[in-house]
Specification:
The structure is a single chain. The longest helix is centred in the N-terminal third of the chain and has 20 residues, at about 5-25. By secondary structure, the chain is an alpha/beta fold. The chain has 15 helices and 17 strands. It folds into two domains: about 5-190 and about 275-305, Mur-like, catalytic domain (UDP-N-acetylmuramoyl-L-alanine:D-glutamate ligase, 3-Layer(aba) Sandwich); about 315-445, Mur ligase, C-terminal domain (Protein-Tyrosine Phosphatase, Chain A, Alpha-Beta Complex), CATH 3.90.190.20. The radius of gyration is 22 Å and the shape is globular.
């Protein structure tokens, strides 16, 4: 019975019933409520269900969902049974729901790995209850300041989650805030991009997160910057510098919707093809390959898993509806949003939908640190929607975008209809929503006959 007491058994059964009912009624995705109710009854349920399971955790500011999705593909391609919180519910309630759904009525879970995307603030809670075996940290940017505060707070939350030396750390070598995480006795595997083959993508006066040398506290300098504070870094005051990555992505070249690149794994070269544009996705690929390297997975099967990967809900998701190509990219902080903007083509129709609900983050000051100046010379009108559409319109005006070309439509469904009208099936329709706008898009496209990847 997996050592469940009677109250924990009851909590498990109630959780399973709630999962069934939410799927039956389709009122919601049911990713958090079952876990929330079950944990109220039995606070140790997550700990009991995850006991003795090999756990791979993915945390960091951007790229958690995509990186964990890529890892899932690679693990299953190698023949492993994996339980994964694929829909991205990464708080303790969502993680518990995932385990409840995966377990049998006796609280037993048949898998080789629990693959868990974990919110940075939730990581210490998880690691205090269960033994994490591998932790992938993607990057650290300012994100939802009303929840986390400044960047140093987020870093300390992750460090608090590394509570013993048994956790193997998979770290982004190009982010000095990540690869300098305090974890002296842990095994570390580093990943990054090849500075000799990646064009410097730093644009304009883009805000860069400050980073300091952990040895002498001097501000970090760069031989080259890929974006924000990610790059080939070094300390100008001592010998501290970017560690040599064990896994490197190099020679990126776009081929239609595919990207061809070269992966260098432990100094061996492999050809690589995947369908995720942008440098941020190159990092997601690199992090996935670094974990695969740490697990000693079969490289051919791993690359096969990457090739079959399909973008997750709203993460560079490409859909085709009413003779229209639609690209949906979630935005939630300056770094990720600026990268999404940098990939927009001049002839695309753009919809930017901004909410400030709890799941989005109440503080929308990040809009002012995002490089909307990249849209200064965009040739088409820009549609803004969501609760904070007028804040977004003001931001575009201050970015010197022509105010006569800003269309304000509070109703997202009306904004989508206008987007279809403007694009007219000729160019891409690019939608940049915050999280709760993304959830609203699910229902809008479902009514139009298209099921997005996040829907059951």
């Amino acid at each position: 019975m997996n050592n469940l007491n009677n109250l924990e058994k009851l909590a498990l059964y109630i959780g399973k019933t709630l999962i069934f009912l939410t799927k039956l009624t389709k009122i919601s995705q049911g990713t958090n409520l079952p876990g929330k109710v079950s944990l109220k009854l039995a606070p140790a349920l997550f700990q009991k269900l995850s006991k003795d399971k090999a756990i791979i955790a993915i945390s960091g500011t951007n790229g958690k969902s995509t990186t964990s999705g890529l890892i899932y593909n690679c693990l299953t391609a190698n023949g492993f049974k994996v339980v994964h919180n694929r829909q991205g519910a990464n708080l303790i309630t969502g993680l518990t729901t995932t385990l409840i759904n995966a377990s049998n009525l006796f609280g037993q879970i048949d898998c080789d790995y629990l693959l868990l995307e974990i919110d940075e603030a939730t990581l210490p809670n998880v690691s205090s209850q269960s033994q994490i075996d591998y932790l992938v940290v993607t990057n650290l940017f300012r994100d939802q300041l009303d929840r986390f505060g400044e960047l140093d707070t987020t870093k300390k939350l992750i460090e608090k989650g590394i509570i013993n030396s048994q956790i193997t750390l998979i770290l982004n070598a190009d982010d000095p805030n990540v690869c300098q995480i305090e974890a002296r006795d842990n095994k570390k595997v580093f990943y990054g991009l090849d500075s000799a083959n990646i064009v410097n993508s730093q644009t304009g006066n883009q805000t860069r997160e400050l980073a300091y040398c952990k040895l002498c506290n001097c501000e970090i300098a760069y031989h080259s910057v890929f974006y924000n504070q990610l790059g080939d870094w070094y300390c100008p005051n001592c010998n501290n510098k970017r560690p040599l990555p064990d896994v490197i992505i190099a020679s990126l070249e776009a081929k239609g919707i595919d990207v061809q690149a070269k992966a260098i794994i432990d100094l061996k070269e492999y050809k690589l093809t995947y369908s995720l544009p942008g440098l941020f996705n190159a990092y997601n690929i690199s992090g996935c390959l670094a974990l695969s390297y740490a697990l000693n997975l079969n490289i051919d099967k791993t690359l096969e898993g990457l090739l079959k990967y399909k973008p997750l809900f709203g993460r560079s998701e490409i859909i085709h509806l009413h003779n229209q190509n639609i690209i949906i990219q979630l935005i939630k902080n300056p770094a990720g949003a600026s990268l999404a903007l940098s990939s927009i083509k001049p002839d695309e129709i753009i919809i930017i939908a901004i909410n400030d609900n709890l799941a989005d983050g109440r503080d929308i000051s990040w809009l002012w640190d995002t490089q909307f100046e990249l849209l200064n010379h965009h040739q088409n009108k820009i549609i803004v929607s969501g609760k904070r559409l007028y804040d977004m319109a003001v931001r575009l005006k201050h970015a010197n975008f022509d105010k006569t070309k800003i269309i304000c439509l509070p109703d997202l469904k009306v904004a989508i209809d206008e987007g279809f009208k403007q694009a007219n099936g000729k160019g891409n329709l690019r939608i940049l929503p915050t999280y709760t706008c993304l959830l609203e898009l699910q229902n809008i496209f479902k009514d139009l006959g298209y099921k997005m990847s996040g829907l059951n």
